[in-house]
Write a structure and sequence with these properties.
The complex is a heterodimer of chains A (790) and B (301). Chain A has helices spanning 2-32, 36-48, 57-83, 88-94, 101-118, 123-133, 140-154, 171-194, 202-225, 231-249, 252-265, 268-273, 275-281, 291-308, 313-318, 321-335, 341-358, 363-377, 386-403, 406-411, 415-420, 424-441, 448-457, 459-462, 475-491, 497-511, 519-543, 553-566, 573-589, 593-609, 614-630, 636-651, 656-666, 681-706, 713-728, 735-750, 758-777, 779-785. By secondary structure, chain A is mainly α. In chain A, helix 1 runs parallel beside helix 3. Chain B has one helix and 22 strands. In chain B, the strands form five sheets. In chain B, strands 2, 3, 6, 7, 10, 11 and 12 form a seven-stranded mixed β-sheet that branches. In chain B, strands 15, 17, 18, 20, 21 and 22 form a six-stranded mixed β-sheet that branches. In chain B, strand 17 and strand 18 form a beta hairpin. The chains are: A mainly alpha (790), B mainly beta (301). At the A-B interface, helix 5 and helix 7 of A face strand 18 and strand 19 of B.
């Protein structure tokens, strides 16, 4: 059926073209022989082809263009005819004898063009007559094309200022009047199309209308080209008249298109000066008009204009562009009741962009916009409209991008309120954007207040907003976002220790709300941030001792203690243990023995109660040993207790090799180079011997279970320890001991059951090489090594 | 044919010339054979003068019982063709009975002739003026020569010429108001006006303005009316909406119009009407007819 219609149309078009060409041929012949009468006759017949109602606008256009070309020839002929002495006035009458109106008016416009050019009558009179006569065509498509033809032939003949057809004082007004009238009539015809024909063809009709819209819009373009249209005339006449037509036509398609046209066609400067008028029309448009795109277009243009040169900015202030736009948007949103949320948000986003361009210093404007947005969103709950969400993200991102400084966004009281309306996922995304922005610009958030605000903003990341709703978030994504929170915590920093203390309080408050899943990510950076402050306080104390300080390391440690405790709920004992140790070390540096002791206690408790995995135990014990070794703050008693415990733990490890290694590591606890009171060779020796025993036992166990001797690597390791302490001057380590251990190793390695291990061999070889090297070095060391036989 | 013509060849040639023949305006006229001939133009109260020359064929003498010239104003009804009713008949005797041997010229003059009616060629009636020269001969048959001429009468522009303005309509369907700038138009006039649509509830397709001529002949029971559409002029294409006003500008010069004739010698009348026709999409026609008076204006050129 539809294919049939298209086919028919094709047929009608080609029939039309044939008819047109035939008559054009006769017309040419008449033109060649200067036969005016025949020329008129055949041209009228030719133009009669345009009377068809069967073609769609698209096809009609094709026909029209052919007629147009022919009419150019006819116009040339008319011009020659007048040169030959034929009166143009007579010619003007003669063409009006045609019986059919459409050909008659095409001819009239054609002659009219020559008439104006002849200057025998003022252009304005001829134009006025033409436009009046064109009323005879009430058929939308035919009328639009005829008037478009009129516009086409007249556009270079308007009585514009500076044109050769310039008339008296009001000449530009005449030109404007003409174009405005043509525009009005064309728009009426165009709108009328919508209401003609059956309802079921609505879609088709709308498509056809959109094909024709440029014919209407062209008039606005012509208007903008008229020299005589200065700002005053634009303000007083052109714009009000155009808007009047736009508003009164009450047609969705026309209003949208024409508003956009007005905005695109006329200069920015004019828009700026007539904002009130232009915007005043917006709320009067049909509710279904996509006004947001129109206004967004306007604001984009103005933004670009503002960006183009600083010189124009004062004008923006002078005309109070922001206030006007803001009011207009409010009114539009109010007027268009069923405007989707995303429409409103888009409007606000555009206004925000505009504001950021034009008034970068007016944060209050930005806040105002966000406030308005909140108002619009309020009572609607979370958004589930993806378009609106997207727009809100854009809205919220704009200030971040502009100011490159989160500080600014934090000053916007409405910012977090807007975020609240985002669904959880997007909220998080937005939070991420904020964090990215901070990271990218390396902005430090330097007051507790701002930190508070910031956490308010990104609370989607900080805690589960909706507890009932378990996120089905990808584990990977979760890690990613928590990592960024962790990074963010590092950025919360100020040189002012007092303020920093406050920040720490704030951060703590927030991260503790995060729940077990988040704590492992947030506590470590927090702890290190706090420890950093501790260290700074120390150095400060050294510099300005005696001064009253609000923040003391002690307080901080207290906070840390509590915070790390929170991790027990997760539980992540290993992490907590590390943090405790870290804190202990810091306390050590601050000479706070009880604090350090407390931290150690906590660490030990964790070790005992929570860390059951043997591998984790190994790691933990080594950490404990390592940390303990560096602690110098402890008194003998405390030290003893802790050391004792550590050794005890070591020997209770499950695997023999682990035991062995932990035990020989403990040896270091008794020999500190820099502390003379901590050089207990006796106990070093004890540890090493114990390690050796365990190594032996391990060896035997290996023999018993696998029938082959175990690795000798433990012995080599112990040998290394021997050498170390020997070098340090532990008197209990004797040459004999070393010698015998070397022999033992050699023996083991050459044993029958031993499976050769290249790594072990290499280890041993390099140990021996070291001995040899020390021997060769000469001096005191060489003396020491001399007795050892390799 | 030639033989017969030769046999009854008139004995003399008669020619009629008007005294101001060279300067007088000539107009074309369709004679009864359908041929277009060019004839002089006269107006009412003009003096018609000239010369009639009689020239015997190659030296023969022509005997006659007298020569006269008549000026006749005739009305011929087509249903009664060939039967002329003379409303004007003037005679001038040119010569007493005698003989003519050689070319002889007679001047004649009808001074200030009453010719109140215009020459008219209608559908059913014809009004003509003719000069008729008769050379009466006893047995040989008279020699008669006709010379048609046209009479047109100018009317001064009417002192009162009101516009025609009217509101018409079909209830709840269509209401229009139309206006023609005058009620009386001269033949080269332009009809200017507009149609204002007050209410449009039907889908109109187009609108034409027609000029119709209504010729009525006879009288009483024998009245015969013939209506012709002389012009069909499209005013509007497409369907207007309420509030539209459509301009009218119709040049009358291309059409062959005559002045309005009212009751010419009780024989016939010719009247003109403007007929406004609106056609809807189902080709239904809605029309309103208004009489206009046509008159002939003195041409300035």
């Amino acid at each position: 059926m539809i294919a049939g219609v298209a086919e028919d149309e094709e047929k009608w078009l080609s029939a039309g073209i044939t008819g047109l060409q035939q008559n054009a041929f006769y017309m040419h012949r008449a033109l060649d022989s200067n036969n005016l009468k025949d020329a008129l006759k055949y041209s009228a017949q030719m133009l009669s082809e345009l009377r068809t109602s069967r073609l769609s606008p698209h096809k009609y256009y094709e026909l029209y263009m052919r007629a147009f070309d022919e009419l150019r020839k006819l116009e040339m002929f008319f011009k020659e005819e007048t040169n030959r002495g034929c009166s143009i006035v007579e010619l003007y009458e003669l063409v009006q004898h045609a019986g059919n109106i459409l050909p008659r008016l095409y001819l009239l416009c054609t002659v009219g063009s020559v008439y104006i050019r002849s200057k025998e009558a003022p252009a304005k009179d001829v134009l006025k007559d033409l436009i009046e006569m064109c009323r005879g065509i009430q058929h939308p498509v035919r009328g639009l094309f005829l008037r478009s033809y009129l516009s086409q032939v007249s556009r270079d003949k308007l009585p514009d200022i500076g044109s050769e057809y310039e008339g008296d004082a009001d000449t530009a007004m005449d030109a404007v009047e003409f174009v405005l009238q043509n525009f009005t009539e064309m728009n009426k015809l165009w709108v009328r199309m919508q209401h003609q024909g059956p309802a079921r063809d609505k879609e088709k009709r709308e498509k056809e209308r959109s094909e024709l819209r440029d014919l209407v819009g062209k008039n606005l373009h012509v208007l903008s080209q008229i020299e005589g249209v200065d700002l005053d005339m634009y303000r007083e006449t052109v714009l009000p008249r155009v808007l009047e037509q736009v508003v009164n036509c009450k047609d969705e398609i026309a209003q949208y298109y024409l508003m956009d046209c007005v905005i695109q066609v006329f200069p920015d400067e004019y828009h700026l000066q007539t904002l009130e008028t232009l915007l005043g029309a917006c709320p009067q448009l049909q509710p279904s008009v996509d006004i947001k795109t129109v206004l967004a277009g306007l604001m984009e243009r103005l933004s670009n204009y503002a960006a183009s040169s600083a010189e124009v900015l004062p004008t923006f202030f002078q005309v109070e562009a922001f206030a006007k736009l803001n009011i207009a948007i409010g009114k539009v949103i109010e007027a268009q009741d069923d405007m989707p949320i995303y429409g409103a948000v888009t409007l606000y986003a555009s206004l925000l962009t505009f504001t950021l361009h034009v008034h970068p210093d007016r944060l209050d404007y930005v806040d105002q916009i966000l406030g308005a947005c909140v108002k619009k969103l309020s009572g609607k709950g979370k958004l589930d409209d993806s378009k609106a969400t997207k727009q809100i993200v854009a809205l919220l991102s704009a200030p971040l991008e502009k100011y490159k400084d989160i500080d600014t966004a934090l000053k916007l009281s409405n910012y977090p309120h807007v975020m609240e309306y985002l669904d959880n996922g997007t909220n998080k995304e937005m939070s991420n954007v904020i964090i990215q922005s901070i990271m990218k610009n390396r902005t430090c958030i330097s007051t507790a207040e701002k930190v508070e605000a910031l956490f308010e903003l990104i609370k989607g990341l900080i805690k589960d907003i909706d507890e009932n709703l378990q996120d089905e978030l990808d584990e990977e994504d979760f890690k990613e976002e928590q990592n960024s929170v962790a990074r963010l915590i590092q950025m919360l920093y100020t040189d002012d220790t007092e303020e920093m203390m406050k920040i720490i309080h704030t951060v703590r408050k927030h991260i503790l709300t995060g729940g077990p899943k988040r704590l492992p990510f947030t506590v470590p950076p927090f702890a290190f941030s706090a420890l950093k402050l501790v260290r700074r306080l120390q150095s400060q104390n050294e510099n300005v001792s005696g001064e009253e300080v609000a923040a003391t390391p002690k307080d901080i440690f207290q906070i840390l203690m509590q915070t790390i405790e929170a991790l027990s709920s997760v539980p992540v004992p290993e992490l907590a243990l590390r943090l405790y140790l870290q804190c202990a070390e810091a306390a050590n540096d601050s000479d706070l023995e009880p604090v350090a002791y407390e931290f150690f206690t906590q660490a030990y408790i964790l070790y005992e109660e929570e860390i059951s995995d043997s591998k984790a135990q190994v790691t933990s014990i080594h950490l404990i040993i390592g940390t303990l070794q560096r602690m110098h703050v402890f008194g003998v008693e405390n030290k003893d207790t802790l050391t004792h415990k550590a050794t005890g733990y070591s020997s209770k490890l499950l695997k023999k090799p682990d035991q062995c290694r932990a035990v020989y590591a403990c040896s270091h606890l008794f020999w500190l180079d820099e502390h003379n009171d901590m050089k207990d060779g006796e106990r070093v020796m004890l540890c090493l011997k114990r390690a050796l025993r365990i190594a032996n036992a391990a060896q035997q166990m290996a023999n018993a279970t696998r029938g082959s001797s175990g690795s000798v690597v433990l012995f080599i390791e112990i040998l290394n320890k021997y050498l170390y302490f020997y070098e340090k001057g532990v008197s209990q380590i004797t040459i004999d001991l070393i010698q015998s251990l070397i022999e033992l190793v050699k023996q083991e390695m050459s044993g029958e059951n031993t499976t050769p291990e290249p790594a072990t061999d290499a280890f041993f070889a390099s140990t021996l090489r070291y001995i040899q090297f020390q021997k060769d070095k000469g001096g005191v060391v060489a003396e020491k090594y001399k007795p050892i036989k390799v | 044919m030639n033989f017969i013509i030769g046999a009854f060849k008139p004995a003399c040639n008669v020619s009629i010339t008007f005294s101001d023949g060279k300067s007088r305006k000539q107009v074309s006229l369709k004679n009864e054979n359908g041929q277009t001939v060019t004839v002089p133009l006269f107006h009412n109260q003009e003096t018609i003068a000239g010369k009639i020359s009689v020239e015997p064929v190659s030296g023969k003498k022509v005997e006659h019982n007298g020569i006269k010239v008549e000026l006749l104003g005739q009305i011929e009804m087509y249903f009664d063709r060939g039967n002329f009713y003379d409303f004007t008949s003037l005679v001038r005797e040119l010569d007493v009975p005698g003989e003519i041997y050689e070319r002889k010229t007679y001047p004649f003059e009808f001074s200030s002739v009453e010719m109140p009616y215009e020459t008219y060629n209608g559908a059913n009636v014809r009004l003509r003026y003719v000069l008729k020269v008769t050379i009466s001969r006893g047995y040989a048959g008279s020699v008669v020569e006709h010379q048609d001429f046209v009479v047109r009468n100018y009317t001064p522009p009417p002192s009162i010429n009101n516009s025609i303005k009217m509101e018409v309509g079909i209830e709840d369907c269509l209401h229009i108001e139309f206006e023609y700038n005058k009620g009386k138009y001269h033949l080269k006039d332009v009809i200017v006006g507009k149609i204002y649509f007050l209410l449009v509830r039907i889908k109109l397709k187009n609108m034409d303005l027609e000029i119709r001529r209504r010729e009525s002949t006879g009288s009483g029971a024998n009245t015969h009316v013939e209506t012709e559409t002389l012009a069909k002029f499209e005013l509007m294409d497409g369907a207007p909406v309420r509030g539209e006003s459509i301009p009218i500008r119709l040049f009358l010069s291309p059409y062959e119009l005559t002045p309005t004739y009212r009751n010419i010698n009780n024989k016939f009348s010719v009247k003109y009407y403007l007929n406004l026709v609106l056609v809807d999409e189902e080709d239904r026609r809605y029309f309103k007819q208004q009489e206009i008076t046509m008159y002939r204006l003195q041409e300035t050129s």
